[in-house]
Amino acid sequence: MLISKVILRAAAAVAVLTAGLLTAPQAMAVEGPAVSISAKADATTRAIVRDDPAAAAAAATVCGTGYTLSKGIPLPIGTDPNLRLATLFAYEKSGNGCAIMDNNVGASRYMYLSICQVGGTSCDVDKGNFSSYAGPVYVTSFACAPVTAKMGTSSTSLYIDYKSEYVFPCG
């Protein structure tokens, strides 16, 4: 009889714990996602990660494992990072680069993202209507790689038209 009560109590405890996990998994999470940040990352990049670590980590996950965030650029340029419409994330790994443009609008928009080898050759492009992000786009020998990021209601109605000679540090 005593063994039956012990088994019944153990089964009840397991049922309660299982129900708690199924109905409130976030309560069991210890911390949110983390992203590795390059020692060369600027203050703006660090602020973006501090304010929205989940977005930076999600973008890194899209690139693949082992990428380190080197740059986060709020777009359009000159916009308060808290009011940005998109965020360009640049990641590096073993001399290779990956870029993602995160859609911060919350609705599907036309997005265009390209990254090229130095000299404009061998470009990787992702374009279309996206509600989450454009990319990933990849480049080998990423130093000084030119990047273009566009976003708007259509390809002819842009409110972001960002072009940079490089998004990754030169040298």
Topology of this protein?
Layout: H1 2-23, H2 43-51, H3 53-63, E1 68-75, E2 86-93, E3 96-103, E4 109-115, E5 124-130, E6 133-140, E7 147-154, E8 157-164
Antiparallel strand pairs: 1-2, 2-3, 3-6, 4-5, 4-7, 7-8
Radius of gyration: 21 Å
Order of adjacent strands in the largest pleated sheet: 1-2-3-6
The helix/strand class is: alpha+beta
What summary fits the major beta sheet? 4 strands, antiparallel
Distance between the termini: 76 Å
Residue share in helices?
A: 10-25%
Poorly predicted spans: 1-32
SS element count, helices:
3
Please, what is the average pLDDT? 79
SS strand fraction: 35-45%
- N-to-C series of helices and strands: HHHEEEEEEEE
- Beta strand count: 8
Question: Any idea what the shape is?
Answer: globular
What does this structure look like?
Residues 1-32 have low confidence and may be disordered. The strands form 2 sheets. A 4-stranded antiparallel beta sheet has the order 1-2-3-6. Strands 5-4-7-8 form a 4-stranded antiparallel beta sheet, with no helix packed on it. It starts with a helix and ends in a 7-residue tail after the last strand. The chain has helices spanning 2-23, 43-51, 53-63, and strands spanning 68-75, 86-93, 96-103, 109-115, 124-130, 133-140, 147-154, 157-164. The chain has 171 residues and is α+β, with helices and mostly antiparallel strands. Helix 2 packs across helix 3 (53-63).
